[in-house]
């Protein structure tokens, strides 16, 4: 690890996972609030370029503006490339406008890939479009909770983002873990759908590694070491990085596409769930109480 990143990580200060992580004034963070900063001059040490950053945002805007407009809102992506913050946010501070705020500091993090950046943008959009379960609190009920933003972000948004690509060729250049291969092949039979599942799972792994680094996790995230904790009630706040990887993985295995709309009140609509008779692709119980 580079010395500047070691120093920055040592100085990292994580704040509460509580309600302040999401409010109408724009603090629905992809990661918990942190003091890590990565200025433009440190791009050469890792992450993606401003060209790659804007490429991702252009594509997200082109693909999802109409979906937001269908809800009667305007979709805005604030591209703060020069901002050092290692995070991303969503807000509805302006009436009638669904906004996501994407910081260059996060893009420049050594663990960030283009696919991870797309998933982060999808997570933020998921706060607006992801449906139930939603965050509790009068000012926060517009926002899907953190786990649901992850789940919708991978299952609906990222799949739609990837589906026009030559995913068979793309994943042929990746090292796909055996359990990802076997699970994707159990759910999907078409080669393109299998490849899309694999790519989505690997984007989830890259994103979970990024989260684990930001949160100074001591245990590496891995597909074969799922979080075994079981919540007594649905956790609205940020799950740990392993639990979030489990969410991304299950979302990649859920065969409900972008065209199947979710509900703001019924957490079983348009998704995989036990109530719907699904045995794979369900939200992990490390954050979700069915």
Give the gist of this structure:
With 290 residues, this protein is mainly α.
Number of domains: 1
Give the strand tally: 3
- What is the beta-strand fraction? 5-15%
The major sheet is characterized as: 3 strands, mixed
Please tell me the overall pLDDT: 90
Strand order of the largest sheet: 1-3-2
Please describe what this structure looks like.
There is one protein chain. This protein has 290 residues and is mostly helical. The protein contains 9 helices and 3 strands; from the N terminus they run H-H-E-E-E-H-H-H-H-H-H-H. Strands 1-3-2 form a 3-stranded mixed β-sheet. Strand 2 (88-91) and strand 3 form a beta hairpin. Helix 4 crosses helix 5 (146-162), helix 5 (146-162) crosses helix 9 and helix 7 (178-187) crosses helix 8 (191-214).
Distinctive features:
single chain, 290 residues, mainly alpha, three-stranded mixed beta sheet, 3 strands, disordered N terminus
Secondary-structure map:
Layout: H1 3-10, H2 50-69, E1 74-80, E2 88-91, E3 97-103, H3 104-107, H4 114-129, H5 146-162, H6 167-172, H7 178-187, H8 191-214, H9 241-253
Parallel strand pairs: 1-3
Antiparallel strand pairs: 2-3
